[in-house]
Amino acid sequence: MTFPPNFGQAYDLSGLGKPPVDTTTPMPGLEVTATNLTAEFLPMSAQKPVVVLCWSARSAESVEMLRVLGKLAMADQGTWVLARVNIDEQPQVAQALQTRTIPYGLVFIAEQPIPFVEQALNETQLREVITKILTLAAQQGIGEAPVEQAEPEEDEALEALDRGDFATAEAAYKALLARKPNDVYGKVGLAQVQLLMRTDGLDAASVMQSAIENPDEITIQMVCADVEIMQGDLEQGFKRLLRLISTYSGAEQKLVKERLLELFALVDPADPRVIKARAALANALF
Fold this sequence. Notes:
By secondary structure, the protein is an alpha/beta fold. The chain has 12 helices and 5 strands.
């Protein structure tokens, strides 16, 4: 991991609540510092996922999340590592990890950082997130995936997709997310189905020609990005939407940003093209 040039600059804590929460009880997890982040935790992530939570005593939500993660880590008996960054004491590490809100969580898998939370989650939601993290790590040859039962709505959606019934598949994924709003597979499945619905029957050549002729027409450019993603040209599809985000503001920018995030969800978050595009999005917005 490469630190930014201004590594070590003080992190702005002005948005955090006061007074600090009582944290005299030892906090769970291994403490991350500027010294051991790259020397210890990155190499460790080649063996098992390293889940990092950036927290502060000024944020009761982050303190509670860290304690819940400690409980889950203990229950999982070493299948993943819990690490913590006290942003009051380690502002340079918080900045290096691009922390903009508290609580903020990311996981290192094979030395690649993947953000997974930017808001407070309860124990049930965190358990779902950890399950997805372990599954993703196993797909990269790190650890073993937990045994997981498919959700009935997911089965219904897959059966509908086999029939080419996009509407039923979309409704099934929406029903799953209504019941489990943070279900990762539900979010990915819905994004996939909606992409299929948006591109069904389109003539790719005509869409791309129209995009060339109308470079600032948001709707046409978004459709063209969909087509590019369907064709596997992820970098160009992301780049097209990032240009619009840099060009527009307000409601139009928000519309394009939401579409871009939907497309991100379709790709492995460790894919370097997604990591690059996420960094470009952050630069465009901040």
